Amino acid sequence: MLNSLKSIDNFINKNKFALIFFSSNNCSVCTVLLPKIEEMMKKYPEIKIKKVLIDEIKEASGKYSIFTVPTILFFIDGKEIIRNGRFISVLELEKKIKKYYKIIKLDLGY
């Protein structure tokens, strides 16, 4: 879990593929969804995933325009590529991630 704006920024900039799961302490949907997302991410070992509790880092809501939880942001090379909020379909999210993941991996010669 990331616990400061600086750690969020470092995580995004340090990893080629970074997925951040924004949640809150009282979000029951988040509690159910996060393990499903983590399981899906096992197929994509280069994608690093971290959770941010917006209750604990209130500034993150403003900086990253988080208006609801859960919200998932996916970054490639520090740029936000995918944003999903509130009603998140794991299958739809995976389709989007897979598309970008394959393109980048091909460009890198993997």
UniProtKB/TrEMBL annotation:
Domain of life of the organism encoding this protein: Bacteria
Domain Thioredoxin: 1-102
Gene3D superfamilies: Glutaredoxin (3.40.30.10)
Pfam families noted in UniProt: Thioredoxin (PF00085)
Protein name: Thioredoxin
Species: Clostridium acetireducens DSM 10703
Taxonomic path: Bacteria, Bacillati, Bacillota, Clostridia, Eubacteriales
